[in-house]
Write a structure and sequence with these properties.
This protein has seven helices and ten strands. With 217 residues, the protein is of the alpha/beta class. The strands form two sheets. Strands 6-7-8-3-9-10 form a six-stranded mixed beta sheet, with helices on both faces. It has a four-stranded antiparallel beta sheet with strand order 2-1-4-5, with helices on one face.
Length: 217
C-alpha cells in the first residue's frame, strides 16, 4: 500500500533529510518510525501523504506513483489519509464539534450525515460530552483527542501520526497510544513517528529506525 524505493529528499537549501530510503508498509499494518530529533521522521510522513515530494526515488501509494500524479488528483489521494501533525492546530474560536465537522464540510458531505459522523468520531475518542466546549477550555490531552477525532472523521484508510505524545504526561500518553492501537485493530493502517521510548514499549510494533535520514534498523 505504501512503498518507498531508494527515496532521497533534499530541501531547498540542499539539506538531505532522507537518504536512500526503501520500505513497504502493508495495508492494515501498525508501524513506528523512531529516531532522534532531525532524523527525518516528519519528512517521511510528509512524503507518504504527498505533502512533500521525493527529490529522487519512487513513492507508491495505493498503486499510484506520486511523482506522476497530477496535482488535481492529490486531494483525492489525501482523503485516504488521516493526519495528526503537531502543526495542525485546532480552531480556537469554534467548538469541539465544529472543529471535527469542518473536514466533512470542506469535502461537501450532506450536513446531517456530517453531523452524525462528527459525533461518532467524538464518541470514539471519549469526548462527545464536550462537543459544545471551546478547545481552550480542554486539557492538552483532550485537545489531542479532538485532533484525532478530526483526523479520523472521514474514516481514512491510513492514519499518519507525528509525535502524538509530545507535551502529554505519561498517563495521557498511554491513553492516546491505546486509541491508535484501537484504530489499527479495526483495520486502519497506522504509522506513528515518535522519539518517545514509552510509545515504542507500549505498542511493540514493527519499528523503522531512522538515523540522519537513513534507515538504520
Ligand atoms: P524529525 O521529524 O525526525 O525531527 P524532520 O523530518 O522534521 O525530522 O527534519 C529532518 C531534517 O530536515 C532536519 O534537519 C530539518 O531541519 C530539515 N527540514 C525539515 N523540513 C525542512 C524544510 N521545510 N526546509 C528545510 N529543511 C527542513
Amino acid at each position: 500500500m505504501i512503498a518507498f524505493s531508494h527515496v532521497h529528499k533534499r530541501y531547498p537549501g540542499g539539506f538531505e533529510a532522507l537518504r536512500d530510503v526503501s520500505l513497504v508498509v502493508d495495508s492494515g499494518e501498525l508501524v513506528l518510525v523512531t529516531g532522534h530529533s532531525g532524523a527525518g521522521k516528519s519528512t517521511l510522513l510528509k512524503l507518504m501523504a504527498a505533502i512533500e515530494l521525493a527529490s529522487s526515488g519512487t513513492v507508491i501509494i495505493s498503486g499510484q506513483n506520486l511523482a506522476k500524479l497530477k496535482s488535481a488528483a492529490v486531494p483525492f489521494l489525501r482523503r485516504r489519509f488521516g493526519i495528526v501533525f503537531q502543526d495542525h492546530k485546532l480552531l480556537y474560536d469554534r467548538t469541539v464539534f465544529q472543529n471535527v465537522l469542518l473536514p466533512l464540510q470542506i469535502a461537501g458531505f450532506d450536513s446531517r450525515d456530517a453531523a452524525r459522523r462528527a459525533r461518532a468520531a467524538l464518541d470514539k475518542v471519549g469526548l462527545l460530552a464536550k462537543e459544545k466546549a471551546l478547545p481552550i477550555t480542554l486539557s492538552g490531552g483532550e485537545q489531542q483527542r479532538v485532533c484525532i477525532a478530526r483526523a479520523v472523521v472521514h474514516r481514512p484508510a491510513v492514519l499518519l501520526v507525528d509525535e502524538p505524545t509530545g507535551n502529554l504526561d505519561e498517563a495521557y500518553a498511554r491513553d492516546i497510544v491505546a486509541l491508535f492501537r484501537s484504530f489499527h485493530q479495526v483495520g486502519v493502517t497506522v504509522v506513528i513517528a515518535t522519539h518517545d521510548r514509552l510509545v515504542a514499549e507500549q505498542l511493540s510494533a514493527r519499528t523503522i529506525h531512522l538515523g540522519q535520514g537513513r534507515i538504520a534498523a
